[in-house]
Amino acid sequence: MQHVIDLCYHVAKHLPGTDRVLAANLLVGTAYIESKFVYRRQLGGGPAKGLWQMEPNTAKWLAREYLQSRLDLAQTVTLILSSSFPVCREDLFGAVNTDRLMFGIEHNDLLACVFARLKYLSIPDAIPDTIKGLAKYWKMYYNGAGDNGLQEEDFVEGWYELFGHGTDVKESLI
Questions:
Q1: What DSSP string describes 46-69?
Q2: Does 171 fall in a domain?
């Protein structure tokens, strides 16, 4: 668990955003609700991979569209990943090998965390500063609105399971 928390804070610290503690805690909550920090492949045979359960179409869009139009951000991502995942310019600037990218997301937690943060960075709305707000934000923008699968209540329960009722999402976990 501490490994994932540390990664979330590392990624939130080095990528842009206004409130890095909230961003890191949103990433921690997302990893826990999506995979319990264990499952690297979607249960039931779905396409999602990694501790943040990123789907191939989302990863491909982030690499081909989102990063390609934000060259400074792409350069920062390349620097963050350079020590742990051999990032080719083609992987971040349009000629994405989706299989290679998804293999990386499944097996490299730093890469998976960076892509989860990129997904949240693509959302123009500010990250809320309450646990119920984080849960709603995750459900709406990451998990997908609707009654299928996990719900906001599951996110809140997971947070309390991990950190107890006294931990404020505005507080640093490290």
A1: -S-BTTTTB-HHHHHHIIIIITTT
A2: no
Q: Which range of residues forms the domain containing residue 128?
A: 2-163
pTM of the model: 0.91
| Tally of domains within the chain | 1
Domain-located, residue 170? no
Domain contains 79: yes
The answer to whether residue 169 sits within a structural domain is no
Q: Residue 114 is encoded by which pair of tokens?
A: 């960076």
Cα radius of gyration rounded to whole Å, the chain: 15
Dist. CA 140–CA 39, nearest whole Å: 22
Please provide the size of the chain in residues. 174
pLDDT, one tens digit for every residue, the chain (174 residues): 899 999 999 999 999 887 899 999 999 999 999 999 999 999 988 899 999 999 999 999 998 889 888 989 988 988 888 876 665 555 555 556 888 889 989 999 999 999 999 999 999 999 999 999 999 999 999 988 666 688 899 999 999 998 888 788 887 777
